[in-house]
Amino acid sequence: MTVTRELLLAYYGQDTEHGRLREGHARLEFWRTQDVLRRALPPAPARVLDVGGGTGVHAEWLVADGYEVELLDPVPLHVERAARLPGVTARPGDARELPVPDASVDAVLLLGPLYHLAERADRVRALAEARRAVRPGGLVAAATINRYAAVHDTVRTGSYTEERQRETAHAALEDGIMLSPGRGFPAYFHDPDEIPGEFADAGLAGAERYGLEGAFWLYGDIDAWLDDPERRRLLLDAQRSMESVPSLLGVSGHVLTIARRPDASQAEPHPADLRGRP
């Protein structure tokens, strides 16, 4: 199954992505992504390539933190919006063929592209491209949607009572393919245990996984916690204490996986050897 450019443009052309992480319960995903990255990224100023960065929700705070940020995205509307942000350079780009030189950035973020690459070969290719683009010792971070997120979310929202929603959510448990009713395009949902293998096949061994939301995104009063700065701090601290517990990774809606390109003292394959890997 292939998620075509036409499907992506049709869906994201509705301009629903701009506010997704800026409001409601999805703010937990945003703040937890920010929390993990701030601990993992090299100190600013460093050059960050934000691949599939949408309208710049993460690029904006990265620039504010002092990073040099270039954003790539296949959706013209996203590029146009992101380019308006002070300090952000934005241009079109595909995660599977990054328009940047080898070893030219300090960190590559893939905080969305793997959602839309249903074929494993394409996901490994995107990760291999990230490894090629980052300097030795540099960081590659990729977000994935959890295999179990649809069942959890449809129960949370109450739509699990609808037969079509229920069948679709359970179908995703079988092979990860999520054909969201009414959403406009299919997506791929990862089993948390398959992510390190995809990183390793792209030349990025030793990947570390972080559950972003834990079980807290399923709580009915989560917005009240996020609206209150002190309660939000406690909530983020609570999830940080459990973020990498293997038995809890699958409860999160999203997992952030981080690895580093081997430095000059470590043997690594040439980038050309990785691009054709399945």
From TrEMBL:
EC number: 2.1.1.222, 2.1.1.64
Molecular function GO terms recorded: 2-polyprenyl-6-hydroxyphenol methylase activity; 3-demethylubiquinol 3-O-methyltransferase activity
UniProt KW keywords: Methyltransferase, Transferase
CDD domains tied to this protein: AdoMet_MTases
Gene Ontology biological process: methylation
InterPro entries recorded: Methyltransf_11, SAM-dependent_MTases_sf
Residue runs in coiled coils: none
Segments forming domain Methyltransferase type: 49-141
One Pfam family recorded for the sequence: Methyltransf_11
Broadest EC class assigned to this enzyme: transferase
Protein name: Class I SAM-dependent methyltransferase
Organism: Planomonospora corallina
